[in-house]
Write a structure and sequence with these properties.
588 residues, alpha/beta, Rossmann fold, Elongation Factor Tu (Ef-tu), domain 3, 4 domains, 6-stranded mixed sheet, 14 helices, 26% helix, binds guanosine-5'-triphosphate, binds magnesium ion
Length: 588
């Protein structure tokens, strides 16, 4: 079981762990004597905390800087305990230390009482979703083991914790230095007859089984075999939650692509049929779908994740430079990295006292804020209430982690409706018995959408027609479809100009069907923007799209694969497009 010990600076966290290690016989032979000897030599009083504070810096200053991990055993099980630093400067290390914990011990000095980091750390635990909490009221010797002091601290702290939804299992009066109520019952604190710290830990449950949650498999990498004829692709990653079984249908988000698990691959070991949460693995699919690092695989029969570009989040900010609007940051969630901006701050909370500061324009260091983030590309995630594992993220700026948070809500963006339609379409799509791969082998080409766009009068249509003829003569299966052909047919019911997005969506759906037949589809349209392309990519596999800009000036923000300057001889343009098709292995 993973435990983290947190609390205000100097309230006795390291001492309590040192005592636990000593009293459970978990220290290496002679370690205790060795540390005592070192103290004697340097004529400084021995501290149990020295057993923990391994780093030199920490010993000389008597504080914990980085989180230390130590191991100890009881009769019931093995524990890993993370000693988190209590000083505000090291809040980031405290969060790192706590992020894997299943249980937390919150330490409060009986004499000093509840201090700002007692609250701040409590708040962080609640954000990280750590619900199994015990409060240790330490240094009881300094208050004459007085029950009324214990009660007073308990009342004050439980009121605070209640406001952030933490309900500790219990409060224990302890004395770190002498070990009272840690591993053994105290003879000095007579009025307390409940469990010791170790007894209560042994009663805790290991984290509610991650295996029982819906499957979440963030894709780490896709390995392709280079051997001729070996078309296998192995999708690799670690199961965040749930179980993975061969034969089950997996949907990948945000793309919404689906296929069945064919084999689970082991490295130099027999193949397995099933993998559990927490394990890393690789698997192959029954069909070649193109997916990339960053997608999340989920079981088609279970609760599906959210996909959006707008999220409501709780953020904690750790950097001196405040978090501001109109600046790009990197958001990392699971295996995805995406550019993100702060759209709006709803409220800022001072976690040391829970005061809410309204109408703030920026998030200062150590503050927590509820806000809306807008990502550049859509991301797949869950909300913290349902699956915390896939709701957590960190914010990066200048290659450093500057903050982190959890997603509370998925908000609508301008493509929500369209995405829903496409996920449903994929879900209901009746798959052909003939796979894309078989078609590609038969036709000697990979089905592709060639999007030829550019300024008016740039000659796109002419290029498209000639390209169609040339490819046809070479024996390719190719079709040229002008945007106008859709406008007056399939789109006849739409009032033109009004809903350009809907025109583009329908065109993309037509393209999606035609691409499924295995053909090379050429579409021309005037001045497509990146936004238009994003709509097309929602409906059509982005790996099947090649964008060609015709004309000297690029008048939109589109990211193209090939640019043909104008004027340019037709022959030369065709050669360059065909080169592109060869390089991308679309024709072979
Ligand atoms: P940081 O890691 O810096 O946040 O501090 P910490 O919470 O780990 O505190 P640490 O264990 O280093 O203890 C701080 C001081 O409190 C040390 O001098 C300890 O000897 C003292 N201390 C710890 N527990 C007790 C106790 O039960 N009684 C008394 N009197 N002193 C204690
Ligand atoms: Mg410490």
């Amino acid at each position: 079981m993973n435990i983290v010990i947190v609390g205000h600076v100097d309230h006795g966290k390291s001492t309590i762990i040192g005592r636990m290690l000593a009293d459970t016989g978990s220290l290496p032979e002679g370690k205790l004597e060795q540390v005592k000897e070192t103290c004697r030599k340097n004529s400084k009083p021995f501290e149990y905390a020295f057993l923990l504070d391994a780093l030199k810096d920490e010993q000389s200053q008597g504080i914990t800087i980085d989180s230390a991990r130590v191991f100890f055993k009881t009769q019931k099980r093995d524990y890993i305990i993370v000693d988190a630093p209590g000083h505000i400067e090291f809040l980031k290390n405290m969060i790192t230390g706590a992020s894997n914990a299943e249980t937390a011990l919150l330490v409060i000095d009986a004499k000093e009482g509840v201090r700002e980091n007692s609250r701040r750390h409590g708040y962080m635990l609640s954000m990280l979703g750590i619900k199994q909490v015990v409060v240790l009221i330490n240094k009881m010797d300094l208050v004459n083991y007085d029950e009324s002091v214990f009660e007073k601290v308990k009342v004050e702290y439980s009121k605070f914790l209640g406001e952030i939804d933490i309900y500790p299992k219990t409060y224990i009066p302890v004395c770190g230095i002498t070990g009272d109520n840690i591993a053994t019952q105290s003879s000095r604190i007579k009025w307390y007859n409940e469990e010791t710290v170790l007894e209560i830990l042994d009663k805790f449950e290991n984290e509610p089984d991650k295996n029982n949650k819906p499957l979440r498999f963030p894709v780490q990498d896709v390995y392709k075999f280079t051997n001729l004829g070996d078309e296998r692709r192995i999708i690799a990653g670690t199961l965040e939650t749930g179980k993975l079984k061969t034969g089950e249908e997996i949907v990948f988000y945000p793309s919404g692509k689906r296929a069945k698990i064919k084999t689970i691959e082991g490295f130099n070991q027999p193949d397995k049929m099933e993998i559990e949460a927490g394990f890393s693995t690789g698997f192959t699919l029954d069909e070649q779908i193109y997916i990339k690092r960053g997608e999340i695989g989920v079981n088609a029969k279970e609760v599906q994740p959210n996909v959006s570009t707008r999220i409501k989040v709780s953020i904690f900010w750790l950097e001196k430079k405040p978090m501001i609007t109109k600046k790009e940051y990197i958001l990392k969630i699971g295996t995805t990295r995406v550019s993100v901006m702060l759209e709006e701050i709803l409220r800022v909370i001072d976690t040391s006292n829970l005061k809410t500061l309204q109408k703030k324009q920026r998030i200062e260091r150590h503050q927590v804020a509820e806000c809306i983030l807008k990502t550049k590309k859509h991301i797949a995630f869950d909300i913290s209430e349902t699956i915390p594992e896939t709701s957590r993220f960190v914010l990066v700026d200048d290659y450093e982690i500057r903050g982190g948070g959890i997603i509370k809500e998925s908000l609508e963006d301008n493509r929500s409706k369209m995405r829903d339609k496409i996920f449903l379409r994929n879900n209901k799509w009746i798959k052909s018995e003939i796979s894309q791969l078989k078609r590609a082998e038969k036709y000697n080409q990979r089905s592709t959408l060639l999007l030829i766009t550019g300024e008016q009068q740039s000659g796109r249509k002419n290029i498209a027609k000639k390209l169609e003829s040339k490819l046809f003569k070479e024996g390719r299966i190719v079709y040229y479809l002008g945007f106008g052909n859709i406008l007056h047919g399939i789109d006849a019911d739409l009032e033109s100009e009004i809903d350009i997005k809907e025109h583009v969506r329908r065109m993309a759906e037509v393209a999606h069907i035609l691409l499924d037949t295995g053909i090379i589809l050429i579409i021309t349209a005037r001045e497509f923007t990146q936004d238009d392309l994003e709509i097309i990519k929602t409906a059509v596999d982005p790996d099947l799209i090649e964008t060609i800009w015709v004309g000297k000036n690029v008048t939109t923000n589109i990211n193209y694969d090939l640019k043909l300057d104008f004027p340019n001889s037709i022959e030369n343009s065709l050669t360059r497009i065909i080169e592109l098709l060869q390089v991308k292995r679309i024709v072979f």
